[in-house]
Amino acid sequence: MINSTKKDIYIFPIKAVGVIGGGQLGKMLTLKAKEMGFKVIALDKDPSCPVSSICDELIIGSLYDTEKLYELAKKSDVVTYEIEHTNTEALKQLEKIGTKILPSPALLELLNDKLQQKSHLIKHGIPTSKLIREVTKNDSIEYKSRTKELPPFPFVQKARKGGYDGRGVAVIKSEKDIDKILETDSFFEEFVEIEKEIAVLVARDINGNIVTYPVVEMVFDDRSNILDMLISPARIPEGTSQKAISIAYDIINSFVSSNLKAVGVFAIEMFLTKSGDILVNEIAPRVHNSGHHTIESCLTSQFEQHLRAIAGLPLGSTKQHTPAVMINLLGEPGYTGKPAIIGLEEVLKTEGAHLHWYGKSTTTPFRKMGHITIIDEDLNSAIEKAKVIKERVKIISENI
Q: Could you list the residue ranges forming a coiled coil in this record (predicted)?
């Protein structure tokens, strides 16, 4: 006779997880969910989205469609999201009638508005770049037409809503950049001289336990402002890493003290300034590009960790067992159509290289089509391998 209690018994599928969004993050989340014995229902407007081939059910519709969100909620034990752009008002109403949505819609709503996010950081004493002023859409048009006085150069403009993968940010360094001003509700913030861009992945479970992954270093593509290469662990002093992790804890605790259900994985992007300060740039309440390397390099991937957290299961170890470098595979400029890859053999013959293909049916310039992670006991060796692969592997279209 097996000795056990009802609390110890799980009937498969363990949970039905509803995922808002069917992109690459949803696909990688679903791959891990299926390994762990979860059922996955996803919502996406594209019938051929990356998650479509592996989820148990795909609800086709807009992420803002109230009826589709209600359908997703009805079929799920817990709902989460792989992209922030959804109907938070509908989610808040669903939460009121008992739907478990994690992280909470109120937290998502806060972080979706970059000005509110910035104000939250300032209010709670989290180090961040100086907020200069709020800018309405009409203001921005006047700034662009030179009929309203601009702040001293240089400065940064950020759209309040809708920005991702480098969109929604304009760096205004001089008069020649004024045409870059975004004509939308936004804000101006201080321009920071950056030594490195770093990020911390944090996970919090429903019982309040918090774990962090090793700090990573991020290098961005100047043309697209999309993450180009990620290095883990970051090449920074241990004291700097500990300071960044401490700030990450402070951010999660600031959500908790504000009665926001901060459960799941959070990506906290930071600037390490030339003067040695750490300033928080942005926060994503979901699995993130800066954590893809964890699939191969850590004992628990960010995707498994997120599922553990939202399902009420114990958090896993965040130990990184092997140094790693990750590069994004972006669609090459000048190519649109059915994707084709140059240099596949280069990836497959490189020791420690792992290809992740997202399964998107169309490539466009700078679209994320996949990523490659290289693990190596020697971080410098991993970096050199990544540079070679990055030079030789290209995503073009079939009609070349």
A: none
Collapsing DSSP to helix, strand or coil, 95 comes out as helix
Q: What are 21-44's pLDDT values in tens digits? A: 999 999 999 999 999 999 999 999
Domains 10-101 and 130-190 share a fold: no
Structure confidence by residue, pLDDT tens digits, 158-216: 999 987 766 889 999 999 999 999 999 999 999 999 999 999 999 999 999 999 999 99
Q: What is the pLDDT of residues 221-255, one digit of tens each?
A: 777 678 889 999 999 999 999 999 999 999 999 99
H-type helices in 195-322, by residue range?
238-257, 294-297, 302-310
Would you state the structure tokens that stand for residue 41, as one six-digit string?
A: 């229902």
Topology of the domain covering 130-190: Dna Ligase; domain 1 (3.30.1490)
Total count of residues recorded for the chain: 400
- The structure's pTM equals 0.95
Three-state secondary-structure class, residue 394: strand
Residues placed in the known binding site for ATP: 114, 158, 189-192, 197, 281-282
CATH, domain range 194-397: 3.30.470.20
Residue ranges at the known binding site: 114, 158, 189-192, 197, 281-282
Residue owning tokens 């994707």: 339
Does residue 189 contact residue 114 with C-beta atoms inside 8 Å? no
Query: 278-301 in b/e burial notation, b at 16+ Cβ within 10 A?
Result: bbbbbbbbbbbbbbbbbbbbbebb
